[in-house]
């Protein structure tokens, strides 16, 4: 495997998210989330799977932190379950729920693993959805109050705090296509949700700054490498629209720009929810931006006859996502075009592959996927991108949202019958990267080691 030297202070980590791994949905006073409600509704999640138990990380977090330590990783990225902390979304704090993250952070620090916390990875308290969900501005205000509580309790022990993970998914899969919780299919609501997620991000940034001013704070967005299906005019236009909706819609306003025009025009959101102070609020300065990257998409205009399929079908993961490592370099360069010298992290990258029935810890395809993306990240650094770290999605096989447990992304195999964990070949590969020497010199990461 070719080895590239990464800069001093570069952070190697792995990521998870609360609803995908924790289980324990009724433990210690946790409230209901939109994903509990959604997963229990017939026909929403493949095989009727739910996150009720997931990896039982809530009860086995010590074992999981020990795995991160065994792999020698620098950092662990996890999310907090809002309804564990505030069962009704607002109001009285559930101390037992907050206590779980208090113990998790201490366990990580005790093993010299930097805790990178995300406040919202899609598990909205159902009580807030009942009051309008993200299409209602009050949810953004509730999010800021929740951010204050978490940052006050944990902020000074965190290596970083991210407000939202992939707000595009929360807005468009949750309220537009209905593929994700809460399962609404209302394009105007999706637009309003997207705006209020950004307002919530801005308010939360201010809340975090007020109580944990030294904790690096930012946001995590998802990006795709988008290239038109052909060079025909309409495909070029379709690709521009897709690019604005997927890659620029959240990034541009955070970087102080307007919402992109072509993407906005082809969405039916009338932008009535934008209040006068919102652009400045959304552009509240951040300390880092997290980049999630998995694949390339080739938009095609619905007005053209379907393009001929390529002579050679592209290499894909088990989920049918094209493997396109060069896209990671392109996406990082694109983000840098908006954010300049702001520190960037790859906060998610990884792949689902079929299990090898003879040995579920054998995953050469995943190793190959990761190695090629690591090389693409290194290329971006050579081109001047201030990339400070790289987190694999995911530490563990887990609940893959509407796909249930069908797709596995873990560096560590989880047997969902016994909940036994076993490190995969990819886990050992990732450990070897974390163990490799990094260039000498000063750590460039704003906040990486804080
Ligand atoms: O599992 C998800 C994660 O929750 C968010 N980003 C993409 C991953 C793979 O689909």
Can you walk me through this structure?
The protein is α/β, with parallel strands linked by helices and about 450 residues long. The protein has a single domain, classed as TIM Barrel, CATH 3.20.20.80. Helices cover about 40% and strands about 15% of the residues. The chain contains 16 helices and ten strands. It has helices at about 20, 35-40, 55-70, 80-85, 95-110, 125-130, 135-155, 165-175, 185-210, 235-250, 250-255, 260-265, 280, 325-340, 365-380, 425-435; strands at about 10-15, 75-80, 115-120, 160-165, 215-225, 290-295, 345-350, 385-395, 410-415, 420-425. Helix 14 links the parallel strand 6 (about 290-295) and strand 7 (about 345-350). The two termini are about 30 Å apart. Mean pLDDT is about 95; it is low at about 445-450. It binds 5-hydroxymethyl-3,4-dihydroxypiperidine. 5-hydroxymethyl-3,4-dihydroxypiperidine binds near residues 20, 166, 292, 393 and 400.
